[in-house]
Amino acid sequence: MKRTEIKDLFLFPSQFDSQEITVCGWAKSIRDHKTTAFIHLTDGSCHSPLQVVFTSELQNYADVASQNVGAAFIVKGTFKLTPDAKQPFEVEASEITIEGSSSPDYPLQKKHHSLEFLRTIPHLRTRTNTLSATFRVRSVTAYAIHKFFNEHGFVYAHTPIITTSDCEGAGEMFRVTTLDPVKPPLTESGDPDYSKDFFGKPTSLTVSGQLEAEVMALTFGKVYTFGPTFRAEQSFTARHASEFWMIEPEIAFAELQDDMDLARDMIKFVLQYVMEQCPQEMAFFNDMYDKELIQRINSVIESDFAKVTYTEAIEILEKVKDKFQYPVFWGADLQTEHERYLTEQVFKKPLFVINYPKELKAFYMRLNDDGKTVAAMDLLVPAVGEIIGGSQREERADVLEQRIRECGLNVEDYEWYLDLRRFGGTHHAGFGLGFERLIMYMTSMANIRDVIPFPRTPNNALL
RNA sequence: UCCUCGAUAGCUCAACGGCAGAGCGGGCGGCUGUUAACCGCUAGGUUCCCGGUUCGAAUCCAGGUCGAGGAGCCA
């Protein structure tokens, strides 16, 4: 069957003027009178619905008109421009086939539903305006990220999802095992005997592909990962999920400033691309969720990002420390309230905070010449908070080994990682971008559960 | 794990110690072009669970379950 997608009607309406076309889709609304009726039809190809008009001259008029919201139709008819009406064009149907009926029980009504209610029906909520717009943006964003890195000569690196290292201790991990959960084989000391497990040792789902990405970066120069990541944390916030997607570029012969430049360029490129490709969706989010969204995104595309050192940030915060619940002093970790104040009140735009005290950061971050701070950077954005965390990596094998010991880690576990420094080591840098947090920032969706089609959070894994 | 808030019709909510309601959605009817159409009629309830206080509990109290927001962890 040759069918026309509704997206193309919106892109090139004049090309279809007075043409006979076939459109397929699902009813978002059906309104009938005695002799004329209307269907708002969506096929998922774009945000706006197509209006279908049909009259009692259709032999199955009553049948079609009495269908419920959600029903699937195949419509043949004439495309007509309607410049004087609320909708730009419509299809005058000559034949409507009821492809799949819906029912009065259909949970989605022609009204506002709370996002919280919609989370309880993940198999249907994707059909709503908000969720479909979000997931269309999500798809376009994923493509934009690949496009950006591809056009900049990066190699797309697949790092393992099942891992044997706990990387940087970046959070609680999900155990991966085929051992009998009730009666696992035991060692003489009574512990589970992982030598009998599938891989002959304990394994988990990855919390970060960074260390493996470094392997790839020291081969290909510029690489990025883009894949699922898992954290078994008992997090109950609107911006944490147990399963999320992360983008982790890693670049060789690069310093912290190169890392920040890359992050900034990538964010700008992606925002611009989504603005171009998803104008209907962005207008929708702007109208329904945040009247300043488009203005804010455009200003991010055009302006530079702010940058402060951790030490400068502390100086700024100390002047207004009475505002805060948590104390501000050099050496203290920045709390969410501090980060939000900096990015939302002081700088009012995306903000890099760099050079944190080494005690606050991971062992692999490069020690600065002051001996107290490391070449780390966090990118904070208003409303969402930390969206990127990155650093220049410690390329000096002796310093790295020292830091591994300081952090209480086992040097033998990191011999391969030290080898990267012993054999042609170079200074290099990278970062992790939370894909969902980027989607939240672009759509103004406030909850990470609403930017993942089938979200996993503690005690919640529907479908 | 800690703190706060919440749970009433299919959905969104009201009633806050005295007959459990509205809007939307559903059903039926009406309407010659609607735009989350409109108009009329109508059905629809274990007020999350379990105890307690009271003449009387959706409402107050204790415990629990589930959810949401925040903190921490971080992306």
UniProtKB/TrEMBL annotation:
**CDD domains, alphabetized:** AsxRS_core, EcAsnRS_like_N
* Claim: Transmembrane helix is one of the keywords in the record: no
Question: Which GO MF terms are attached to this record?
Answer: asparagine-tRNA ligase activity; ATP binding; nucleic acid binding
User: What keywords sit in the KW lines?
Assistant: Aminoacyl-tRNA synthetase, ATP-binding, Cytoplasm, Ligase, Nucleotide-binding, Protein biosynthesis
**What are its GO cellular component terms?**
cytoplasm
Q: Where in the cell is it found?
A: Cytoplasm
- Mention any Pfam family matching this sequence: tRNA_anti-codon
The record's listing under InterPro entries reads: Aa-tRNA-synt_II (IPR004364), aa-tRNA-synth_II (IPR006195), aa-tRNA-synth_II/BPL/LPL (IPR045864), Asn-tRNA-ligase (IPR004522), Asp/Asn-tRNA-synth_IIb (IPR002312), NA-bd_OB-fold (IPR012340), NA-bd_OB_tRNA (IPR004365)
EC numbers, comma separated: 6.1.1.22
Biological process (GO) annotations held by this record are: asparaginyl-tRNA aminoacylation
Kindly state which reaction or reactions the protein catalyses. tRNA(Asn) + L-asparagine + ATP = L-asparaginyl-tRNA(Asn) + AMP + diphosphate + H(+)
Cite the Aminoacyl-transfer RNA synthetases class-II family profile domain residue spans from the record: 135-453
Major localization class: cytoplasm
Q: Summarize subunit and interaction data from the UniProt record for this chain.
A: Homodimer.
Q: Which family is it part of?
A: Belongs to the class-II aminoacyl-tRNA synthetase family.
Report the protein name in the record. Asparagine--tRNA ligase
From the broadest rank down, the organism's phylogenetic lineage runs: Bacteria, Bacillati, Chloroflexota, Anaerolineae, Anaerolineales
